[in-house]
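forwarding from the other thread:

> can someone predict this with arginine?

sure thing
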Amino acid sequence: MSKAKTIDKTNRTWGGRFTEGADALVEAFTASVNFDRRLYNQDIDGSIAHATMLAHVGVLSTADRDAIIQGLEQIRAEIERGEFAWSEALEDVHMNIEARLTERIGDAGKRLHTGRSRNDQVATDIRLYLRGAIDAILAQLTRLQVALLELAEREADTIMPGFTHLQVAQPITFGHHLLAWFEMLRRDWERLRDCRGRVNIMPLGAAALAGASYPLDRHYTARLLEFSAPAENSLDAVSDRDFAIEFVAAAALLMTHLSRCSEELIIWSSAQFDFIELPDRFCTGSSIMPQKKNPDVPELVRGKVGRVNGHLMALLTLMKAQPLAYNKDNQEDKEPLFDTIDTVLACLRVFADMVPVLRPKREAMYRAVKQGFATATDLADYLVRKGLPFRDAHEVVGRAVRLGVDTRRDLAEMELSELQVFSPLIEADVFSVLTPEGSVAARNHFGGTAPEQVRAAIARARVWLAERE
Ligand code: ARG
């Protein structure tokens, strides 16, 4: 249902200068209301703050201010009840709400746009929206981090093979592996938090591009909207979307990390690895192969990185050739931004639900660590401690591994006399370093994989979680 009758001949709030209505195709082409209506709360909050400031500086009467605020709150309720009649002819969320306000309260509604433009209005709305979205994302990220620390604590002593080149490299603890994930996400948390600081600057008052000819108190409006400050420069305030690009870049990195974690979950839940069991509710079956249980959730997370990376390219490209100040190109910022927010939130939620119910298969992990000569470096280190230069030790162990490959035995399964053929420095005490337990316990320094270090790292991470703001 259009509100056309209350507006001028072109159906637009800017209709005064125009002699003919918009071409229907152009109208549909330029409209953004179908996607920017999700900004309605921020648009109403911004308008209430703007009207409050206008009254504060004496540009608007308190009676008009009160009518505007009451009218906007009624419109908010209308939208929330699903009763608001959005109109494409009114182009965007801003003009839809303003037209409805005027319809409800008359002339006071027409005074709201004093000293304001849709250019500073939309930039303000997006920043408010993104600020809230970042807070929601940080909260989900925190849930995931807490879940990872709990799982890492339960698995601090669990031994598994660590890999390089996806080949068994050295024994590690599963807790240590999970803490690597935690570190990636810690940096993502910090990046988003840092980005939030640059998002939280207020464009309002920049008006179309040059500021307004009224005595606006932009610091006052900024305080009302809980922005940290009004933007310094009116041209910059309405034109740049670098804050959105920065957010999507941080989101792309976060998604990259979730994708890497997903990749490991997928590999680990294969029959060939069999390191973990994903609960049935995070998997699906196959319509043709009855035995299948596919790790769909991690696969989808891995797949969804593509769209966020795409959105990053879209926004960078959107911005790159725009002269100052506002250009309509910027209307294209919203869909990539919204989809990035939705994607990241959905992936984080599902991950934070999944991590606490992952079931590690400790015996399978242990079996795998015994199969890949994972303690070969430990034998070399043992020889170094007995005085052999590392390069010579490397050579000796290489030959012992060769024997192991030929006779299908791990180093720990060989006789002492067999090992002594490779070096007379090898004595009975060698077997304590050839066990996976001895190997991980030996890596007992800051950042190492020893269970003691894993517990210390978890304790430090918990302090960080508690102290960060
Ligand atoms: N829908 C527009 C956007 O998203 C609002 C600003 C329009 N400003 C203008 N001068 N056409 O960017």
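Residues 32, 36, 92, 118-119, 122, 326, 328, 330-331 surround arginine (CB under 6 Å). thats all i got for now
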